[in-house]
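The protein record quoted in full:

***
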Amino acid sequence: MCTLEKRGNIYILTLTGDDDHRLNPTLLDSISAAVHRVRSETTTPSALITTAQGKFFSNGYDLAWSQSDPDRHIIMSSKLRLLVRDLISLPMPTIAAVTGHASAGGFILAQAHDYVLMRKDRGFLYMSEMDIKLVVPDWFVKLLKNKIGSPAAIRDVLLRADKVTAEVAVAKGIIYSGHDSADETVKAAVRLAEELVARKWDGHVYGCNRKVLFADVLAAMNFDETVEDVAGANIISSRL
């Protein structure tokens, strides 16, 4: 699942194990619980780093778990949206140290952080929906538009399903920085967190300003038309 370590005023949330960290309810609940703990414990300027063990940061939704029941798609979507809301409102800077592949929902989880750092020697960012014939939720698109400045880069991520390495992601403005290894990525994330904590910003103000910045994303997250459509289609077909 995940662990939470505190180093001074820096929290390091690590997705543990050598699996691909699929975003099923168990993992999403574990991450959310860690984020809630960070929120409840914080009384001074702090920062959160999220990283992962193994070759994957996260390979997205657990589609194998959800394929037997459309309601499971809704459960995963709802839990991911709650987690991203928590990250957006968290009263501190957030950093994703991406030490492996981040695909689909895993890519979105990484981009829900203020800064994304990534290893250069292994791994890619990949919005796989075009390749696996899934419609991208509106809130995914709004989040990516908020984080990626280039329309061409967004096109290539969403409509070409490019597998983006760290060096390309830096060049296209998709991530903050690239680093030589997993260890170097985490070390760089800690250095960045230390710099941000040293600014001694008011956490409440930081969280409020982030919510203003992501206002269109938060509004779009009230509803996921892709999973609702899946559920609705099955209800209708069952009545025919």
About this structure: The CA atoms of residues 130 and 159 lie 7 Å apart.
